UniProtKB/TrEMBL annotation:
Originating species: Acinetobacter tianfuensis
GO molecular function: lipid binding
Keyword Ribosomal protein carried by entry: no
InterPro entries attached to this UniProt entry: START-like_dom_sf, START_dom_prot, START_lipid-bd_dom, START_lipid_transfer
Key words of the record: Signal
Protein name: START domain-containing protein
């Protein structure tokens, strides 16, 4: 079976997962059929977000792109490298180690992610992710991220149409101004979904999904 695992969480700095934006969410971006809402709670100074779009491809093709670890560095923003630490295809669980390339003069980040894939009775595919505090040796060249949660969901709207939603929160750690971090939260999900659309427009056969998602 082709090596499949979640990749998109590598570039997302985001938050608590929920089915719709919070009541006080602000629609920060609405262009190119991509919407990004940002909001905050009392415990997190850094904004959370939800972003969504619709894609004119089969749901299997969209999910396959997110799961293709070998192809991720070619399109996922800020992803320097990634490797699979463990996986359990029957349970849909996996662990990843990834390095994120931050712009100079900021130090690059790394993190260990625990993820789980599932499909509900309505056919909605979900991928949930959470950073672990342990699982891989610390490297002094990087700032380790330990406060991250994120989610992807894929809802089939037709044979050639899928609704893609992503939610998240992350503390980027280190000396990053809060205003800069919050600006990143607004732009990053938009750029992620824009690049995802561009990548899916290229001719490519969809890989087979893990059995747990079929």
């Amino acid at each position: 079976m082709k090596k499949l695992i979640l990749t998109a969480c590598a570039a997302l700095f985001c938050s608590a997962v929920q089915a719709s934006p919070a009541a006080d969410a602000k629609l920060s971006i609405n262009k190119n059929n991509i919407k990004v809402w940002t909001y905050q709670d009392s415990e997190n100074p850094i904004m959370m977000y939800k972003a969504e779009t619709t894609l004119n491809v089969p749901i299997e093709q969209a999910v396959s792109l997110i799961l293709d670890v070998d192809h991720a560095v070619k399109w996922v923003p800020f992803l320097g490298s990634m490797k699979v630490l463990s996986r359990d295809p029957k349970k849909g669980e996996f662990q990843l180690y990834m390095v994120l390339d931050f712009p100079f003069p900021l130090k690059d980040r790394d993190l260990v992610v625990q993820g789980k894939m599932s499909k509900d009775a309505q056919g909605i595919i979900s991928i949930q992710n959470k950073a672990l505090k342990k699982g891989y040796p610390l490297n002094k060249e990087y700032v380790r991220l330990t406060n991250y949660e994120g989610d992807w969901s894929f809802q089939k709207l037709g044979p050639q149409k899928v609704k893609v939603s992503t939610y998240g929160y992350a503390n980027p750690e280190g000396s990053i101004p809060l205003s800069a971090a919050n600006m990143f939260v607004q732009q990053q999900p938009y750029q992620m979904l824009r690049k995802m659309k561009a990548e899916l427009s290229k001719p490519k056969a969809a890989a087979a999904l893990p059995d747990i998602l079929k």
